[in-house]
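Project standup — Tuesday

K.O.: blocked on the structure for the chain from last sprint. Re-posting the sequence here as requested.
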Amino acid sequence: MKKILQTGMIGFLVMMVACNGSTTTSTDESTKTDTPAVMNDNITPAPGSVMTQSSLPMKPDQEVPPNNSAASGTADVTYNKDTKMLTYTLTWSGLTGKPTMAHIHGTAPRGANAGVKHDLTSVLKKETSGSFTDSVKIDASDIKEDSLLSGFYYFNIHTPANGGGEIRGQIEFK
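H.V.: unblocked you, prediction finished:
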């Protein structure tokens, strides 16, 4: 009877550990893990499915035609191929006036203009220097994944003095 009780208790303990979603950590540095014991609904992206590019330049000389503004900016972008989400932070300074609009334009390579594909004006801070973070679902909008990954979209911030765009930054993952 004692043997059956011990086996039952061990089985019960194994089930409790396996079903509670706790993590296990090995003390051996070469095999150290911090992995859930049981799969859950939180999906970890596959290696290579998240692409990040920091400090993409946004400058007046990327505009078509270029302008003589002293403004500059950067774009930090992340694209998750699994969720199809493009997340970005635009930062700018030195605009000639308060920005009037901001967009993602495409499809166009560097040196060419294209129409608006996604309007950013509602999240744009109307200051000569500033930043904002936003995201858009790719393929559910007018932005297509293959063209995005090929570098055919760009950010553009417009001002009263530069209605066609004061600074521009091509979205390129390298």
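K.O.: great, moving the ticket to review. Confidence is low (pLDDT under 50) at residues 4-9, 11-43. The two ends are 66 Å apart (CA to CA).
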